[in-house]
Amino acid sequence: MIHSKIQETFVPIFERQLRSNESGWLIGDSVTWIDFFLADIVDKLVHRLKPENVPILENLVKHQKKVFSLPNLEERIKQREKYIF
């Protein structure tokens, strides 16, 4: 049920925005707070969705990995504790 809402509303909005900006970021030519926000939400969704539903987030997961691979942030993410929320 929740995956259908995500697929119908959340995913198309952010995928459309990513496609419209050639930089690969949501807004402008460099990473902004909204990129961090989306990456965090996608990370949480991936851990909550059933594995068969994760492919609906494929393009957003690519963006999340781009954000999480930024210098300094990548190392911090590896060290942080895992929380369910």
Automatic annotation (TrEMBL):
It holds the Pfam family GST_C_3. Residues 1-84 form the GST C-terminal domain. This is GST C-terminal domain-containing protein. It comes from Panagrolaimus davidi.
